[in-house]
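Sanity check. The docking grid for calcium ion depends on where the pocket ends up, so I'm generating a full predicted complex first rather than guessing from homology. Inputs follow.
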Amino acid sequence: MLPRSLPIAEHHKKKYNARMKKICLFYAVCAWGAYTTQAAGVKICFEAESSSSLEAPMIVATNGVPGASGAYLEIPEGAGNPPKLMAGKASFSVDVPEDGLFTLWCRVWWEGECSNSFTINVDDTPGFLFGEDATYKVWHWVKYPVSRTVSPIKLAKGKHLLTFHNREDGVRLDQILLSADKRFVPVDIETPGTRQ
Ligand SMILES: [Ca+2]
Ligand SMILES: [Ca+2]
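Predicted complex below; grid placement will be based on this.
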């Protein structure tokens, strides 16, 4: 009996190996699918002037800075900023279609080094500093986080509230974009909407 058992065992081994190959292939395809989905990444773009709530001295403006996508938000230079003036904010309700790690991009126009930042809150989490780059008097895209040592913004599927607070006056904000694709870099005016 013993010699005959070997070919049977061999047969089972072959069947087992074939099944394992299929399972491995299945998981490889799934992993590749998940990877490519993540690499493509959700992008959510909206206009700053579409804020769901706005508090002065942050205002909607169209005054004399060309190159914006429609209107933009502005805290006029000289309007005041913390700690003297704590007021001035804009909130946005953002519908995130799937869980992800997001880079926040803002199309901004800074007056100068005392006019180049916001404090931003996502939902009830502590605020973070946005901006402080040295590109002045031109519309340009700035991102958060800048450093790889800072985690991107983790957002679960569903509604989230993004709030931009007055930190320095003399700032302008044209468009906002959340991107789950780390390699994506906006260049000029982006088309508002959600896309993969
Ligand atoms: Ca500054
Ligand atoms: Ca705009």
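Relevant for the grid: Residues 41-195 form a domain with the Jelly Rolls fold (CATH 2.60.120.260).
Also worth noting: Residues 35-39 have pLDDT under 50 and may be disordered.
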